[in-house]
Design brief:
GMP Synthetase, Chain A, domain 3, 2 domains, Rossmann fold
Length: 377
């Protein structure tokens, strides 16, 4: 079984013992070893490669005369355990990125489109920058980019030839600044269709995380594509310290869809920081409020997934107008502007800095060493 730990499933990225694929190994008196190997699916295309690797590893042991493999298939529960283990292992060996280690990373996500996820991202970024923070905005909605227009940005991204890095579009917001990267700042036209499969979109996300000359950021907001697709899984693998902020509308149907995004976040071991209910109510000029999109969805979602309701953003025409003109409403006046600023303050005040978290871990290790006493000679 120790030898089988050297057999790696190339698709799941871990060894067959750790994944629970290697069930048992029987050694006969004549040196024949029979290994029972469970596949995630009977028609696994990697079966031949796994067979060759098992025979090579086990066959190298002294006294082994022959290696035979008995194949079986995992149950749904065993398969779920193997996938969870593979995602955990991927999280533990995340590749290095250019994102500063001290930046708080928040993935602004939603279960479906049309709930105002990009609007929340842009206005939250503007509100954070207005507080004097350096904020990065990564538009990970590769094929559905909208961040450049909502921030009034034009022109293609430049490159730093000496460092071979992409230079983000930087703009001052009060005492702070925004650093923005989006496919919208690389595409030839704003209305050009970018028809990329999931692998290509993941590759673009990887470039934005690894090959951008990000500055000394306090925060990085990632505008995620809606749903639970490839880019979300790629982010969890490449940036496992990201926290997820879920955006939903008050409608119960939107709440149920957003719950899937929360489920995906937790299955990929990302922390769900909380819920933002967008378009919560409309107040007319006479002061009467109307729940045009229903009510209670944000609070119900927060209760269902065990996360706080961070904010309820009222429905205002100025939010859409600000997005169309490139002037985020968070920098103006009104209930929606104040709600976005309150959301920004809450995230800053409630989130412990990365250095403090690292210090806690270090102190725990120091106490463990002290409790164990001096090492024996």
């Amino acid at each position: 079984m120790d030898l089988l730990r050297g057999v790696i499933d190339p698709e799941l990225g871990s060894d067959v013992v750790d994944l629970g694929m290697a069930r048992q190994a029987h050694v006969a008196d004549d040196g024949t070893v029979t290994v029972t190997l469970a596949l995630t699916t009977a028609g696994c295309p990697l079966r031949a490669q796994l067979q060759n690797d098992v025979k090579a590893r086990v066959g190298s042991a002294p006294g082994v005369s022959d290696v035979r493999i008995e194949w079986t298939e995992m149950t749904p529960e065993q398969k779920a355990h193997a996938m969870a283990r593979a995602r955990w292992n991927a999280k533990e060996v995340a590749p290095p990125t250019a994102v500063p280690s001290t930046a708080r990373v928040r993935a602004i996500s939603s279960g479906k489109g049309g709930v105002g996820k990009s609007s929340v991202t842009v206005n939250l970024a503007a509100a954070l920058a207005a507080e004097g923070r350096a904020v990065g905005v990564l538009d990970a909605d590769i094929g559905g980019f909208s961040v450049p227009r909502m921030l009034g940005l034009e022109g293609r991204l430049a490159g730093d030839q000496s460092q071979r890095k992409i230079v983000p579009h930087t703009t001052a917001v009060g005492p702070g600044r925004l650093e923005v990267v989006s496919m919208g700042l690389l595409a030839e036209r704003e209305d050009a269709a970018l028809m990329w499969r999931g692998l290509m979109q993941n590759r673009a996300l990887q470039h934005f995380l690894e090959d951008v000359r990000w500055g000394d950021l306090d925060d990085l907001l990632i505008d995620m594509p809606p749903g639970t697709g490839d880019v979300g899984m790629g982010l969890a693998r490449m940036l496992p310290r990201a926290e997820v902020v879920l955006v939903t509308t008050p409608a119960r149907a939107a709440q149920q869809v957003a719950a899937r995004a929360a489920d995906m976040a937790r299955k990929t071991y990302l922390r769900v920081a909380g819920v933002v209910e967008n378009m919560s109510s409309f107040t007319c000029e006479h002061g009467t409020s109307y729940a045009l999109f229903g009510e209670g969805g944000g609070a119900a979602l927060a209760a269902e997934i065990g996360a706080p309701l961070l904010a309820s953003i009222p429905l205002e025409a100025s939010v859409a107008a600000g997005g169309d003109s490139g002037n985020p409403v968070a920098l103006g006046d009104g209930p929606a502007a104040e709600a976005f600023r309150a959301l920004a303050r809450r995230l800053v005040e409630e989130a412990p800095p990365a250095e403090a978290m690292a210090g806690c871990s270090a102190r725990i290790l120091e106490r463990v060493e002290e409790a164990l006493g001096p090492k024996p000679a």
